[in-house]
Every structure is written in structure tokens, then in C-alpha cells.
Amino acid sequence: MSGPSAIRLLVLGAVRMHGRAHGYQVRNDLEFWGANEWSNAKPGSIYHALKQMAKQGLLLAHEVAPSTAGGPPRTEYEVTEQGTEEYFSLLKDSLVAYDQKMDVLSSAIGFIVDLPREEAVALLKKRVEAIEAWRAGVTAHYIPEDGPEQLGHIGEIMHLWVHSADAGAEWTRGLIERIEGGAYTFSGEGEPFVGVLAEDQENPYATDEVHPGDRE
Amino acid sequence: MSGPSAIRLLVLGAVRMHGRAHGYQVRNDLEFWGANEWSNAKPGSIYHALKQMAKQGLLLAHEVAPSTAGGPPRTEYEVTEQGTEEYFSLLKDSLVAYDQKMDVLSSAIGFIVDLPREEAVALLKKRVEAIEAWRAGVTAHYIPEDGPEQLGHIGEIMHLWVHSADAGAEWTRGLIERIEGGAYTFSGEGEPFVGVLAEDQENPYATDEVHPGDRE
DNA sequence: GGTAGCCTAGTCAAAGTTGAATAGAACGCA
DNA sequence: TGCGTTCTATTCAACTTTGACTAGGCTACC
């Protein structure tokens, strides 16, 4: 660690989609996206990220209005120009970085259509290269002179990592193909994808249902 | 989160192997195991875990002796009975839990030979079941009535997760086969595997070399 | 018309994580 | 002998994450 942060990207991206949003809206969007399943996007982290990024000038905080829908008053945020820069920089880094933090990659995939199609493809290709380089480095380093048996069951750990890296590379190659084949609508290709909940819309994924196999 | 913690398991396991160990020894072991590559095992976290677990009665702290090899005095730790219980409980949980935190699984694999062979196999089989259940739950929930196209590129995220889950299940099945086939030496099968560095031994993996593709 | 329960919106203390800083002792060597 | 470097061993402040808590308003229902 610590490469790009998933929450920062998620929060920045969510606020950016709304134009102006308060914490609770962001929180709902992330739940809508299923981000609670694959990232550490709990309320506390979200509000913390908002405040921190406001302090750093990436967001502009409007000390604001009592709620329009009951509940305590709320603070609304907008992304600044600096915040937009950070957003794209974070997005690109997250697509390329192979640090096996799936939450970072997942977030970036969620926003990938904010990039032009060719750039997305180029970054994903760089990702594949990064994975292959990581694989080469690790296998060279940890499967040394005297043969792998020497490591005993410890070798299974490297095996696991290499196996996952390969799966990651394979998935990435598939995605590249789909994108090159014309799937999805990228930046500058008309009607952008809008993945936020409107003020009054209900969240179809909001549920208390616990999926079998989940660990809380 | 927050399922079992990787550092706690690693630290507990390292101290346990030594019988009695100070922080620097633990730190070296973890580096020897390559844990710095696949977990957040930085010095700060290690010392924190030691102190915390001592406070909780899992470790016994001996306020101790000036270093025998230069440097400041050091504190040595032993695992208590309660700590041993916690160790095995953590170990078993980590083997079964599918919360896609690879560091937790990796740590557990490192210590899997502390269990009897049949128990290890049983736990790994439970793991495969947990993965399959998770997969079933998630696909049912996130690929709803109106077909998956509705999700747009967001569907790729679930695709990624499912792909990784499948890879994880496949690897686990492979490991089960190898273990059932007699690989490695488990608890109660004679000469236990010893993976710690002796007091004077040099660490063959200690290196500043940066593997290509690494993100710091 | 009261009250139980839920939705909105956010705060906070405790715990965990990070990277850098500290500091003593030994070692090389000019 | 004195000076810089490396190794040993740990601490610390800053930051992030977590889960539980707070608190106002609305709604359904008796």
C-alpha cells in the first residue's frame, strides 16, 4: 500500500455525477452500486472522506439548508476544478495499478466510461502488462535455485497469488475485447450513463437481506 | 469487514512458533514469509498488534532485557492459553471465510499445517461451499428481472467479482486434492514444518529489490 | 391524539494503519 | 581515534476505518 483509495474515488465520482450532493445521497448511491459489498464504504468513511477532501480543496462545502425531507440539516458538496483533476488522476491510476485491491479496480470500472474509449483500452492494456510484470518478478524471486519444494506448503501462498493474478489478467483481456467490440457508451459518445438516484427515487437494491456466504 | 484480521493471525502464529519472541523477530519472520508482499505487515502494525493482544491477554509481555545484539532493549512475548485458543479460532475462521481479503486466506494457508490433515480438508471444503453460496446469492440479487444489460458497464464489476470467486474456488479445490493426495506434513504427522529464522540466521528474502510491477 | 417505529442525516470514540523518526551499538576504514 | 554507515529495535503523530450512537421529523395505527 498505499495506492489509490477506493472511497475517495467513489465519493468524488458520486458527488461529481450529482453536481451537488450531501453525504446521505452519496451513501445511497454507493449502496445502489453495490459498493457496500465490495468496498469499505460505510457511512463513517464516506463522511470522513467528504470532510477531508473539502479540507484539501477537492470539494467545496456549502454549509447548508435544513433537510427538505425531515432529519437534521445537511452539508452539500461540489467538486472543484482541482477535485476534477484528482478524480481523473485517481481513476487512471486505479485502472492501471495492480496492487490486488479489488475495491480500487471495481470503483474504477464503475467510472471507466468517463474516459474516452481508446484511453480506457490503453489503460487496461497497461494493466495487463503490469500484472504480467508482477507475475514474472514474483515467480523469479520466490521460486529460487533449489526448486520450489523447499518452500513446503508456503509455496501454496505464491501459487494462490499467481492464480489470482492470472484470473485478473484474463478478465481484463475479456473486458478489453468487449470494449473494443463497441460495448457500452464512453465519454463523447452521446447520452452518458447516469448511475445516480434522483432525489425522490427509491433504491431497488437497498435491502437488509443477507446473502448466504456473506461475512458481516 | 471485519472478519478475521490477517496481522493478528500472523503475529500470533509467529510468536507461537518461537515460543517467545520480540517484535523485531516477528517482523523478520513476516518478511521471510513474504508477508510484506501480500499483507499490511509493516513494523507499526506489528508492534501495535503485539501491544493490543498483550492488553487483551492473548500474549504475555515480559518487560525485558537489553538487546543481546545491539540496539535498544526489547520486550518479549509469549502466547497465553487464551491466545492459543484465539489462534486456532482465527485460523479456522480465516480458512472458511470468503470475504475476498486474500491476505487473510494467505496467512491462514501459512499456518494450515498446524491443523490435522482431515480438519484442514474439511475446512477448505466448507470454504468452497461458502464461495459457491456467495456466488449464488450475488448473481441472484444483482442480475434481476429485466436482464443484465440494464446494468450497463456496472455489470462488469459483478462479472469481475464472480470471475475472481470462481478462480478462488478452483484454486481451493486444487489445494484440497493436493492435501488429500498426501502433500505436506500436518499436525501429528512427525517433524513439524518450522518456518522461522533462528537468532543468528540471515534472511534469504530480505532485499531492497523492487519487483517490476510492484506498487509501493 | 399519542406513540412506536422508521427514515433522514450525521457525529464520535476507539481501533487500526502508515511512514517517518528515534536511538543505541557495532563495524569498517582512513 | 574518530566518523559515517548499517543493523537492531522500537515509538510516534497523523490519518483512516469502524460500529455504535444521536436526534429530528414523518407515518401508520390503534
Automatic annotation (TrEMBL), chains A, B:
Pfam families referenced in this protein's UniProt entry, alphabetically: PadR (PF03551)
Residues of the Transcription regulator PadR N-terminal domain: 19-86
Annotated SUPFAM superfamilies: Winged helix' DNA-binding domain
Annotated InterPro entries: Metal_resp_DNA-bind_regulator, Tscrpt_reg_PadR_N, WH-like_DNA-bd_sf, WH_DNA-bd_sf
Name assigned to this protein: PadR family transcriptional regulator
Species per Swiss-Prot/TrEMBL record: Streptomyces mesophilus
